[in-house]
């Protein structure tokens, strides 16, 4: 049931073709105050067309618009304000949610088309830090939302497993590393070596030359360099697997930068055939001055290919392999220029599908106002944060619910959920200051607050002793149920908006509002009171649990049945 579309249809019909349905939909607004109505249509656009004042037009329209869903339609100045029939609409909404259950809010917008999502993509031989969290959880949530909107998704973890940093790491290991230390604590030891290299290189430039030589050996297939690289890579993947398991995130592909080593010559040849390569100080570039952009570097003067070359090869491979209709790159905002260059070069190569590729940027997680840096050793390890969050959740459960079954499982849901929700409730392009205390708060606008609202609602249904799957709801029209009904109504629209704007925060903020309204309802209404509306109230509670749980799932957060 889409009341907005019903209202738009009524308005469009009353205008007799003066404004098309789609134009009416775009103009409809939410009144600032609930006392003004549930939905409003501004008549300013019609003034020129009808050569009448917006106030007069509103009066005429208000008399023509009527529907069983609407209790009354009134003109208020230049607006046509509509009040929904609470009893009819609440019954229809609750029945719809209970019938569709987890499918509520799903759409066929994507028409089963393929969408690839490139996200997470940590660097091999470096720890999985809080800096990697944003791409990981935003990308996972966007994949969930895209599937909800009817797309088939391919989740790609484009690992940073090649590049000059491996020359630095091998050089550092050869100079100061010990095999036993690396085997004992692989990632932390490799991080120490990486940080030490940069500290020493400031005073000893010869180290940079050593790093370049080792990377050249790696590129040339030197056996020792290759074995060290494979060792560092395998150790990293095992560490990353632990993090992804804690976050409950899976990927369809782990093809990283190294995967495209044998696929770049084709790209260089294509660029040569299209006469797009230009020499600049001995290097090969693609000139993008006609787009007011700096050139994309394709090949260094020594013949080495670069990041841009790999991304061009990856894009062509993915199109051939997956035949995607949309391709999201969930990568930090500092890479905006790179992706503009990438997409324009693909366009110059004649690939029209370059227009289907979208960079989804996001802000940084800051520490003391500054971006975290692996090179400087100013990182906060995500695994440590997750363990602390789970530990705090365990402590809270021991204090408040000592007899709770499956405590460990619930603590993991709550601790991990707190971290994911804290990230996703922020608009993705905003920077977030890292604060463990803020992230792990279990009250206010947090993941645990929403999870607890879900668990409380489930508890009410259990206490009722009534089979919540076979409720016979009635329409509700009290002041405390109506805000919940309106929010339940809005869920499909929120999902569509979050997809259109690639913005999971819209769902997170919505869930906070729904949890708040439910808690207000719980504190003012005797839900289990045995009267004619009892099943209607229980049905409303059941609808809330369905939407809270599904909304959290879209964010990648679990909803415990008990807390």
Question: Can you describe this structure?
Answer:
This is Arginine--tRNA ligase. A motif ('HIGH' region) lies at residues 122-132. It comes from Planococcus faecalis. Keywords: Aminoacyl-tRNA synthetase, ATP-binding, Cytoplasm, Ligase, Nucleotide-binding, Protein biosynthesis. With 563 residues, the protein is an alpha/beta fold. 54% of the residues lie in helices and 10% in strands. The protein contains 21 helices and 13 strands. A hairpin with a 2-residue loop joins strand 6 and strand 7. The chain is globular and about 80 Å long. The protein starts with a helix and ends in an 8-residue tail after the last helix.
The largest β sheet comes out as: 4 strands, parallel
| Mass-distribution shape | globular
- Poorly predicted runs: none
Radius of gyration: 28 Å
Physical arrangement of strands within the biggest beta sheet = 5-4-9-10
Number of helices: 21
Keywords: Aminoacyl-tRNA synthetase, ATP-binding, Cytoplasm, Ligase, Nucleotide-binding, Protein biosynthesis
Subcellular location: Cytoplasm
InterPro entries: Arg-tRNA-ligase (IPR001278), Arg-tRNA-synth_N (IPR005148), Arg-tRNA-synth_N_sf (IPR036695), ArgRS_core (IPR035684), DALR_anticod-bd (IPR008909), Rossmann-like_a/b/a_fold (IPR014729), tRNAsynth_Ia_anticodon-bd (IPR009080)
Pfam families: Arg_tRNA_synt_N, DALR_1, tRNA-synt_1d
